[in-house]
């Protein structure tokens, strides 16, 4: 059980680092005007763009979690317990 806790903590830390890196990258690209000259008729502070990106990423995360969850519910618990 201790190893499972260590693995869960490790994945939590990796996830947090990934979110921080993505946030810093997004800040560097959008708010330092690095891409502002390439945006046509779109402001770097456009709420529709940010909302669309947030919706797209949320949808991808939803599909990435729902598909394995649905597969897991199809397995008979007794068969899964016997396999271990």
Residue runs with pLDDT of under 50 for 5 or more positions: none
Distance between the termini: 15 Å
The number of distinct helices, counting runs of at least 4 residues, comes to 3
Helix content: over 70%
Q: Classify the secondary structure makeup into a structural class.
A: mainly alpha
Q: How many DSSP E strands?
A: 0
The Rg value, from CA coordinates, equals 20 Å
Largest sheet: none
Give the quaternary arrangement of the chains.
single chain
Number of domains: 2
Q: What is the arithmetic mean of pLDDT?
A: 83
Strand portion:
under 5%
Secondary-structure element pattern, one letter each? HHH
- Overall shape: it is elongated
Could you describe the 3D structure shown?
The chain is mostly helical. The chain has two domains: 1-40; 46-84. The chain contains three helices and no strands.
Helix-strand blueprint:
Layout: H1 2-30, H2 47-73, H3 77-83
Key features?
single chain, mainly alpha, 2 domains, 3 helices, 75% helix
In short:
The protein is mainly alpha-helical. Helix content is 75%, strand content 0%.
């Amino acid at each position: 059980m201790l190893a499972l806790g260590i693995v869960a903590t490790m994945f939590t830390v990796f996830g947090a680092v990934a979110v921080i890196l993505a946030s810093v990258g997004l800040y560097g690209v959008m708010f330092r005007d690095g891409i502002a000259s390439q945006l046509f008729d779109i402001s770097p502070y456009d709420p529709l763009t940010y909302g669309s990106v947030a919706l797209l990423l949320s949808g991808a995360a939803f599909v990435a979690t729902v598909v394995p969850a649905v597969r897991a519910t199809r397995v008979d618990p007794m068969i899964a317990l016997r396999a271990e």
